[in-house]
């Protein structure tokens, strides 16, 4: 038994070493990626459910790793957050997304709202407002065409401070959306205290709402509550026609999901816009 215990120990330790090594090498290459600009953005259209037209896009970061190929954000965002690399990376994302949106407008395409995800570290940066303002100035994008997506747990930490930042952003004409709404445990009372324009209903509820009556109730309740508080709703992860029917029946304003389009390159999005693709 003693022998086996030892083997077990060696087994786990070897496995642990591999994981530590993997993490370390990922961290090293993440540093290099920030320096060498190995990131790129994909854009997923948001569609207005009344008009059926593209009314916005969400910028989603991709890491084009020289050996590993495209690395999913789910893999490197948490590491970037932990190491603080999210700050320079996030600034690059914001600048690139705003510049791209201005370029589409200058090309005469119908104007879109550009949604950008902000991580906790970025939201808590002392100079967040100045950074956003500077990027808008530099790129020439009007603030009404930028929207920032924040998760509810992020906003709930230090609620008073958050409220002040959200008010500042809103006063400058930048809308804020709560991302993955319904997955946090926060008290709902913050919704009426914070200047939040949009709720993005998490894809977990959308996925099952046409089969699971509980999820259907949740989605209907979220939409009704949002409207009562003067907010709009955006459904994420829409993959099926029956989900669109449900959302239209319940007056959800916008949808985003594979049913309409996966996240695509700037070039492909430009094509979708130019051809006037509708639902
Ligand atoms: P998120 O903000 O909730 O973004 C939505 C995710 O759902 C995206 O995954 C998108 O590709 C995926 N998705 C969209 N439509 C569908 C659908 O119909 N079905 C399914 N199954 N999935 C769909 P992605 O691009 O892998 O991004 C994952 C997460 O990484 C994002 O979740 C966001 O939290 C984070 N992320 C991405 N880009 C950035 C960024 O620039 N900054 C920060 N801080 N986080 C980012
Ligand atoms: Ca998002
Ligand atoms: Ca989301
Ligand atoms: Ca998510």
TrEMBL record:
Portion of the parent chain present: 611 to 889 of 905
Organism (species): Geobacter hydrogenophilus
All residue ranges annotated as the EAL domain in the record: 23-277
Stated name of the protein: Diguanylate cyclase
Source organism superkingdom: Bacteria
